[in-house]
């Protein structure tokens, strides 16, 4: 058993068949990096350079592009950025809290209705976003909450997949014996959850937070339907309106390209720094690296 | 409260072990219900009620009497399944279904095929720069669909595109735009699906493969005979999720529209729902159409699961 890891390492290093698979994977990597690297280069080009210089030749206009973007409609772009952080950060935090507590209850308690509640909550994954977004908009308008921050934040808290993941993590990461010990020591349900279970579930919760954060950050349909006031737009809707306004005016292309480039920075940074938490393990709750 | 609950007299370790899997060191109490309250309330408010409201709307219609000018001349009435009949007979919607069928088949096959290939290659023993490739291929997951469409859209635009400088082709023409759009979805989805499959593979004890290697199996044989069967449940799950997402395609065609006149405002069924609800203001037919879309998603997902189950696990 101990030998297998070493054998594996040797095979990995000395493998004679390494060229083909390596090349295929690198081609995949190039394909995936192509548009991102193009936009990074294109954002450095001035208006004239954008249409004349070679696609991957860096330009000289980055700072003036950023200045133009910052000046566009009194800096509404930065507002979109802040709004997105608010929607994604706030929504993902609330979502993680709700999922963790629900997942723990579903994994560690036996009670009448457990399977029914779990199946109903998970069944939500089968309800297409489209069936929800329009009535959600109508219901929010009835209570006067359409076109507010709440209308984008609240519907995105509950996510069936997060509850499913949280249940798996709680089952795997929280041993029954510890809960039993806490019980014998006289800890109540809430204290046990807070002091024993949740700390053990932290790695899983980080993963849930990240998935939710990205899902909300990337969402277009819901804010597109809910919001009319461009001061409350997230980046996706803002950039779309910029594109819709500027598609026929090549003079606005620089603005759109620079906006797209800057909008990618936060997520890609989050993504690279949180590498080890990006796991989409559907079959087990193991969270070790 | 559990603090006063007496310890089970026979709650020794062996018994406790036997009871494992039934889950729970706690006794039945109000606690799990309290813990589940936020989720259930949110589900009720933002899933159950909207679904019910959509069904209600889909069965109604505005009836205009007279010239439709006076105050009481516009009335909401119950019309049964009229809106559904209209949705099913709608030629524009059918054209949308056909476009999405072609687009979706392309996306599903290429995206999941590439995801599986990349996951297997990453997990094989002989790859160099695997970490770099894995991160690079997963990177588009961090790019919102709108931004991905915008980036590729500019790369398709003849005035900017480095692609059309190499190959002379109109990437936004009426014959090619489906492929260009599918490319955006494939690009955006391949990394996530790869990660799902790859993490599933990493959870498999390496000793499985060592045993096969000692028996003389090649890497290809290990991939086909051991890894793909292990991956089957994860492949099924990612396929079902992808089917649901593809049927509801909205972002890519909507965000590509400003750059080309080959995409109509009813290109996909969901775009037609949006137009009916917010442009032409016919909420009732939009509600019926969205229920039809949901129904089609469910039928296709369950149909797929059924076919797969019969093929993979059926006893003939």
Chain pair forming the biggest interface: A-B, 118 and 114 residues
Q: Tell me the domain tally of chain A.
A: 2
Count of folded domains of chain B: 1
Biggest sheet character of chain B: 2 strands, antiparallel
Specify the CATH class of the largest domain in chain A: Mainly Alpha
Number of DSSP helical runs of chain B: 13
CATH topology of chain B: MetI-like fold
CATH architecture annotation of chain B: Orthogonal Bundle
What structural class do you assign from the helix and strand content of chain A?
mainly alpha
Distance between the termini of chain A: 19 Å
Structural class, from helix and strand content of chain B? mainly alpha
Give the radius of gyration of chain B: 26 Å
**Largest sheet entry of chain A:** none
SSE order of chain A, one letter for each helix or strand: HHHHHHHHHHHHHH
Explain what the structure shows.
The complex is a heterodimer of chains A (about 290) and B (about 325). By secondary structure, chain A is mainly alpha-helical. Chain A folds into 2 domains: about 15-60, no CATH class; about 70-275, MetI-like fold (Orthogonal Bundle), CATH 1.10.3720. Chain A contains 14 helices and no strands. Chain A is globular and about 75 Å long. Mean pLDDT of chain A is about 85; it is low at about 10-15 and about 280-289. Chain B is mainly alpha-helical and about 325 residues long. Chain B has a single domain (about 85-315), classed as MetI-like fold. In chain B, about 65% of the residues lie in helices and about 5% in strands. Chain B has a two-stranded antiparallel ribbon. In chain B, helix 2 packs across helix 13 (about 285-315), helix 4 (about 90-125) packs parallel to helix 8 (about 175-200) and helix 5 crosses helix 8 (about 175-200). Chain B is globular and about 85 Å long.
Give the tags.
heterodimer; A: 289 residues; mainly alpha; MetI-like fold; 2 domains; 72% helix; 0% strand; globular; disordered C terminus; B: 316 residues; two-stranded antiparallel ribbon; 13 helices; 3% strand; disordered N terminus
